[in-house]
Structure formats: C-alpha cells, structure tokens
Write a structure and sequence with these properties.
By secondary structure, the protein is an alpha+beta fold. It has 3 domains: 232 residues, no CATH class; 100 residues, no CATH class; 129 residues, Immunoglobulin-like (Sandwich), CATH 2.60.40. 43% of the residues lie in helices and 19% in strands. The chain contains 17 helices and 16 strands. The strands form 5 sheets. Strands 8, 9, 10, 12 and 14 form a 5-stranded antiparallel sheet that branches. A 4-stranded antiparallel sheet has the order 13-11-15-16, with no helix packed on it. Helix 3 packs antiparallel against helix 16. The longest helix has 23 residues. The N and C termini lie far apart (133 Å).
C-alpha cells in the first residue's frame, strides 16, 4: 500500500509539474464564448449619430454598416460585403479548418450553455462534462426545469437575432402591439422555437447532418490546414488508413503490433467528444475543432510526463516534425483578396450620398409651346436620408440656356422623407441645328440642400431632347407672327 501511495503521489506530481501553467482549450473557448455573447447582445444597442454597427432594417428600407446609414438604393457596396464574407470563410477554413464551429458558432455556444452549464453545473443532471457520450436517464423533473431555463434564454437569443433587423428602440415599441407587427412576432417565436428544439432535441446532429459547412470545408483543406489531429507516429495506429477497420481493440493488442505506441487506449478523448467521434480515426467531417479531446489527452498523458497525442496542428507539420506553416500560397492569396475586398468595401462606403435623387423621363419626348419654348418633363424622386430636415433645390449645369420652369422654389423635406416632383425644363435657344432628327442632349443635374450646400449635394446625368431645327424654326416664326 505504501508503494501504491508513493506511485500515486509520484503520478500526481509528474502531472502537476508537466501541466504547470497549462490552460485547457475548453477555458479558452469559454473566454471566446463570453466575448462573442457580450458583443452580439450589446452591439445592437450601440448607436453613433443614430446609426448602428450593423442593421438590415426592412421596415425603414435601410442598412446600417459601421455606424453609417445607407438607403436601400445605395447598396452598391453590398457585392463587396458579400465577397468579403465568403472570402473570410474560405480563408478561415483553409487556415484553421472548422475553427468557426468549435469557437464561435452560436450552435456550439448554445449547446455548451445548455449541456455543460445548465444540465451539468447547475442542475447536476449530468455527472461530468468529461463524458458527453452517455445521455442522462430519468430525472424528468430536472430535465423539464433545464428546458424551461433554456427556453427563456432561447427567447432572449431570438430577440437578439431580431434586433439586427428591427432595432431595439423599435422592437420594444412594436412588441406592445403584437397584432400590428405579425411578421416580427412570428419571426421571434419561430426562431425561439427552433432554438429550443435544436438545442434540446437535435443537438450535435445539427452539426453532423444539417449544417452544410462540414461538406463545404472538405474541399478547402490541404496538408497545412490546422486541425485537431491524433499523432499516429507517437500514439500508434488504432484504425486502418481508410478509417473503417479498427486494427486494435485494447492496449495489449496495440503493444503487440507497435511496442513503442504511447496511446493508453483509455478513450477519454472519445467520451468527451460532443459530436461523438473517435479522433483516432483521423480527419472526419463531424469534428468541429473544439479540442475537448486534446484537453482530455493532455491530462492523461500529463500524468505520464508526456505531451498530448492530440494536438492542433497540420498533417505536414506532424510528418516533418515542425510548426505549421501559416504563410503559404493559399493563405496569402486569400489574405490579398480579403484586403482588396475590404478596401473596396470602405471605398464604396465613403461614396455615401447624403441625399438621394432618381430622375425618370416621362413618355413625352418634348413639347414646343405656342411661344416657341421647348420643354422636357421629368419625374424627380428626392429623399432626405439625414436625421434632420433640409431644404432642397437643383440646377442644370453646363447648359445655362436650359431653365427650370417647375418647381419655382426650393422645398423642405423632413428627416427620411421621400417626395416625387414633376420637373419641367425649358429653353428658347437653338441648342442644335440638326434638320434630320430630334437630338438628345446630355445634361447634368446638380441637386443640393440649400442649407448645407457644401456637404449635401449629388449629381445625376440625364438628357434634354431638342426637336428638329426646322420644326423649331417654324414654331418660332408662328410665335413671332402671333405677337405681331
């Protein structure tokens, strides 16, 4: 007994010495989860000059991006935003595999909250977070309480999701009159209901069977992609190369096959896996890079004074006994493309206009008045995209001979207000002397806020159609004769 006590104490001492200063990946993930959760809950409430960090507001037909407000008609930067999003996913997957799934995905965060916090730590339905393979039996009362607690959190998460489409300041006003806002209320309950079913019933099957990311990622991997990898060179070959056949079933068989194999066949890595895989089989689509298995193996091997057999590295790094290569052609190429997309996004965002103007011509090309004036009629759509009222007007640039007949005076628009204006431009001068056809003349319209002309100004191109010169001359002569 004394020898056993000494051996036990020696094992603990070795593990304590080896693991000194070691922080489990699980704790690091918790820190990331907390930061991501706080950010997602707080950012919808943060406004700068009335603008949100990100808001896709269908109600007011606006998008808020980086605390700037863009009208739906200003979404010329959306291609850059979408390109940046896809490139970021490709870059992240090429570099770190399914790292999004294990470290930032809401599905993973919610499962950790429900399984590890509510079921294990709070209600003690599960005995240990180190065993995720066996589902707890019985305890109907505790399980019901757990579902109710999660249901409350699910509605909070659903409300947070809605806040990226309906800002909180509007959300809490709308929720007082639910019958008037059926789409919002329906979305809230559908999202909450899905989260309750997903986290309590579907569980990690969502990651394995539903989420398309697992299938997409497989075409982005290369030999340098950082993954959760079991080192067969040290631990031994438990499975065949095709991952289907188990070569050994216990420690004795392993040592008979590979006497220097270090794996203890304890299966701690299997019991702790949330997606119920055996990492010793090699790369699998179900692996979400949560590194729970690496933590389990680190503790087991630490007791033996050895490093973990499961690490976050690349296959090439293991084969060549080196660190992973972060800088390589694919990551550099994605990095350059990301930089270009982000530059384009900010550049297009800097082109934001502080008012909107759409110009449409009517079906009538032109009209020659009895006094000989040529008129063109347009429909101008003005919108004040600012948060304060402004007074607007416009002028015709580069063609002083073209005058504004209507409207005669500037007009005022409230914050966010849109208005259609019938605009009549005219001229009594011969703009062209073509006797063969009507001539469209390019003109530029400069619209502005009269009270902020240096800042709020836009320019639009359109045309002014002038009739055949001989027709215009004839009208001029008729007008002169009528005057006499």
């Amino acid at each position: 007994m004394a020898d056993a006590a000494v051996a036990k104490k020696s094992s603990k001492e070795r593990m304590a010495e080896y693991l000194k200063g070691w922080t489990p990946y699980r704790y690091k993930r918790y820190y990331v989860f907390i930061i991501a959760t706080i950010f997602s809950l707080v950012i919808p409430w943060v406004k700068i000059n009335g603008a949100h960090f990100f808001l896709l507001n269908f109600d007011k037909k606006q998008i808020h991006l980086f605390f700037r407000v863009f009208d739906m008609q200003e979404l010329y930067m959306m291609p850059f935003l979408l390109i940046f999003g896809f490139l970021f996913i490709f870059f992240m997957t090429t570099l770190g595999g399914r790292v999004w799934c294990g470290w930032l995905c809401p599905q993973t965060i919610f499962r950790v909250i429900y399984r590890d916090l509510i079921q294990t730590k709070l209600l003690h339905i599960r005995k240990s977070i180190k065993n995720k393979q066996k589902e707890p039996e019985g305890q109907i009362g505790k399980k019901t309480i757990g579902v109710l607690i999660w249901s409350i959190l699910a509605f909070i998460a659903a409300a947070d999701f809605v806040w990226y489409f309906v800002p909180p300041e509007d959300f809490f006003q709308y929720i007082k009159h639910p019958s008037e806002h059926g789409v919002m209320m329906g979305t809230l309950f559908i999202v909450a209901g899905f989260l309750i079913y997903d986290i309590t019933k579907l569980k990690e099957d969502f990651c394995i069977y539903v989420c398309p990311y697992a299938r997409v990622q497989s075409v982005m991997y290369d030999e340098e992609t950082i993954q959760t990898i079991y080192n067969t060179e040290r631990g031994g070959h438990i499975y065949s190369d095709d991952q289907e056949v188990k070569l050994v079933h216990n420690l004795k068989e392993l040592h008979e096959k590979e006497k220097d194999a270090e794996c203890t066949m304890c299966d701690a890595c299997v019991r702790v896996c949330p997606t119920h895989i055996d990492i010793k089989r090699g790369t699998q689509l179900e692996c979400i890079n949560c590194l729970e298995c690496a933590d389990a193996c680190t503790q087991v091997m630490g007791a033996l004074g050895k490093p973990s057999l499961i690490t976050w590295t690349s296959y090439s790094a293991i084969k060549e006994h080196r660190r992973p290569k972060f800088l390589r052609f694919r990551t550099i190429a994605y990095g350059v493309a990301l930089t270009l997309a982000l530059t384009g996004l900010f550049w297009m965002g800097s082109k934001k206009e502080y008012m909107l103007l759409n110009i449409n011509r009517t079906t009538q090309l032109y009209k020659i008045k009895d006094d000989g004036r040529v008129t063109n009629v347009y429909k101008f759509l003005f919108q004040n995209t600012q948060h304060e009222p402004h007074t607007y007007y416009f002028e015709v640039e580069s063609h002083p001979e073209i005058k504004i007949e209507r409207p005669k005076k500037p007009f005022k628009l409230r914050a966010g207000q849109k208005i259609n204006k019938v605009v009549v431009l005219s001229t009594d001068k011969p703009l062209v002397k073509d006797t063969t056809k009507d001539t469209p003349i390019p003109i530029k319209i400069k619209a502005f806020a009269t009270d902020a002309k240096d800042k709020i100004v836009v320019e639009r191109n359109t045309i002014f159609v002038f009739p055949r010169y001989d027709i215009w001359q004839k009208k001029q002569k008729e007008a002169a004769a009528a005057d006499q």
